[in-house]
Structures are given as structure tokens and as C-alpha cells.
Amino acid sequence: MSKELSEGRPWPRFVLTLATAIAGGFVFDLLHLPIPWLLGPMIAVLIGSNLLREHYAWPGRIRNGGMIVVGYTIGLAMTSAALREMVRHLPSMLLMTVFLLLFCAGLAFVVSKLSDADYRTALLGSIPGGLTQVVTLAEETEGIDLTIVTVTQVIRLMMIIICVPLLVFSPIFETAGEGAADTAPAAVQTVAGWSSLWPNGLAFAAVCVVLALVGHKIKFPTAFLLGPAIGTAIMQLTGLHGPALPSALINAAQLAIGANVGLMLKPGRLTHKVRTFSLAIGSGLSLIMGALGLAYLLTTFKSVSAATALLSLAPGGMDQMGIIAHEIGADLSMVAGYQVFRTFFIFLAVPPLIRLLFRFLDGRAAARQGSR
After folding, report:
1. Of 340, 323, 293, whose CA–CA distance to 129 is shortest?
2. Distance CA 323, CA 336 (A)
3. Burial (CB count <10 Å: 0-12, 13-18, 19+), residue 205
4. Helix, coil or strand: residue 191
5. Mean pLDDT by 10-residue block, N- to C-terminus, for the chain (372 residues)?
6. Under a CB-based contact definition with an 8 Å cutoff, are residues 154 and 131 in contact?
7. What count of Cα atoms within 13 Å lies in the side-chain half-sphere of residue 200?
């Protein structure tokens, strides 16, 4: 979007986009909708930019700044306590994560056969990662329909945020406390005042920015997100305490990303809107059912409640699952450990694996064309 700002009348277009994004965030916040400062600006800018196509622009540097902040908050969850929990449960965490990803890969295959989307787009739409991370990966992957990926991911996220709490608070789930509700993980304790940023915040900020720029220079996947996340995690594991961020800064980062995504979405290009939304809803329900099945499997060889197992495996936001676990007295350290492990596994292992898969698919397609 930086190029767009350099043409025509840049600042009025940027100010209009910013005002639209802020208005969308406030509306979603007032309505108590999930992740209001990401989805609100995204949808508001999407509507505004499709009504006034030439009057909206958003600089890529602002979006990258938001990505750095989000990357820092992800790295903040990698504490020594979370790492110990991950080591203790490593075999089951790896097995459950692989099963979930294989289920999503199969789900993507079915969706690709029932829709106009190719398998690459369907796969990125089905990956149970964070909305920001998956959309960023889709942006950086050639030949991906970003609109379909974003629509599918947004619907999946909203369904999980709505359905999982209804499930775990329902009578069919055991919600008795398991002795871990008194200790909130770093994934939950991510909001603080501005004064807490001094002085450690300066060191973390410098490392995050440098690693983001270096990662971008060497073409590291999702560099503005992964660079800060990895740097923050390493600094925390060396004993340096990373300060929690003020809510205003987190909201601003989400707005920066949401406005950028909203500007990139082109719903007019969807050839079969009803089918696309129907498949996205069906995919989200299937993913929830898959998580339920894996949660049941986890309870058969781990002495945990069904609620703890579901919250550990639910492909939703790490913060939201941690907050629900705290409310019902589930095993908070286990939920945080599983969620952090899956998040980092998807960040670090999935992008190169997807690129290898896509190269393999390209090779097969080229071979078929050459044999004709």
C-alpha cells in the first residue's frame, strides 16, 4: 500500500482510511464483538474502500509496525514456565498439533473440490493459526486468493470464539477447578500501563525492530511478525523481563493490520459468494468438531478434564482460550502450553512446509503439461 500513498493526494486518503478504521473499531468495541480493533477496522475499511475505491490508501510501514507489536506479544508468552510445561507435554502436543493440521489439510481438499478455490487457497483458509499470521502468510504466497483466505479465517475465528465458550460452560463439560486457576499465564497478562515499558521496553523494542528489518532483508517468512516473536522469546528465556503492553498500543497495532487487510480485500471478485460463505461456515463447524474429537482422544491418555483438553486444542486465540480456562478453573498452565506450542509450530514449521508442498504441486503440474 505504500506505493498507493506515493501517488495522487496521499494524506487525505490516509486520513480518511484512518478515520474509517477508528470508527469501525469503536463500533465493534461498543457492541462487545470479538477482537474489535482488528475486525472493526477491517470491515469498516472494506466497506469504505469498495464504496469510494480511489479515496483510500494505507502505508505498508504502518502495517509492518503493527505486525512488530503483535510479534512481541506472541514472544511474551514464551516464558520459562510455559517452556517447562511444553517440554513436559511435548510428545502429546506434537501429536495433537500434527493431527489437527492433517485434519485441516483434508478439510481443505474437500473445500477445494466443492468450490472454485484451488487447494493452496483452501489450505491457507483452513490452517488453525492466528488470523494476522495466516493472512500475512497468504499475502506473501504467490497465487493465493487473499479474500477467500480472510473470509474463511474470520468466520472460523468468530465461530470458535462464540462456540467454544458455549461448549465449555455447558452442562456436558466438566468445569470443576483443577488447581491452576490462580496463576495466569503471560498469554493472558498482556495489558499494562505505559510506565511499565521503562526501561526494559526500550531494549525489547530495539531487538524487535532490528530482527524484523533483518528478517525482511533476508526474506524470512512473515519477518515482521516472526522476527520480534523469536527475539522476544529468546530475551525472556535469558532472564530479561518483557513488559506487558498498554491496551491502547495493542489496539493500535490491531487497527494497523485490520485496515491494511480491509483495503486488500476484494469481495467483488468472489464469483460464488453464497457458496464461499457456506463452505467457510461448514469448514469452521468441521474444525470445531475435529477439535472436540482430538480433545476426547487427549482425555483418554491424559488425566485432564474435557474442558481443559478442548481449550488446549481449540484453534482459536491464545488469549481468549486462556481467559476462559481461568474463568472455569481449568488447568491454565496446560492450556497455555498447548496454545503457545501450536502457535510457534505453525509460525516456524508450517510456512516452509507449505512452500515445499506448493513447489511439489507446481512440479507435478509442470510434468503433466510437459507430457501432453
Report:
1. 340
2. 10
3. middle
4. strand
5. 51 90 94 82 88 84 89 79 78 88 89 82 81 72 79 78 74 54 44 73 92 88 81 87 87 89 73 79 88 89 84 73 67 75 77 77 73 65
6. yes
7. 13
* Residue 172 phi, psi (nearest 5): -75, -15
Residues 6+ apart with CB under 8 A from 207: 228, 231, 232, 235
What are the backbone dihedrals phi and psi of residue 66, each rounded to the nearest 5 degrees, phi first?
Answer: -65, -40
pTM: 0.67
Question: What is the rounded end-to-end Cα distance, in angstroms, of the chain?
Answer: 41
Distance (Å, rounded) from C-alpha 174 to C-alpha 299? 12
Degrees (nearest 5) of the Cα angle 332, 337, 342?
130
**Contact of 93 with 337, CB cutoff 8 Å:** yes
Residue 3, C-alpha cell as written in the block: 506505493
Residue 25's identity, in one-letter code, is: G
Residue with grid cell 514472544, as numbered in its chain: 75
**C-alpha to C-alpha distance for 69 and 239, rounded to whole angstroms:** 21
CA 359 vs. chain centroid, Å, equals 24
Instruction: Name the nearest CA neighbour of 214 among 201, 203, 230, 198.
Output: 230
- Record the cell numbers describing residue 204, joined without a space: 525489547
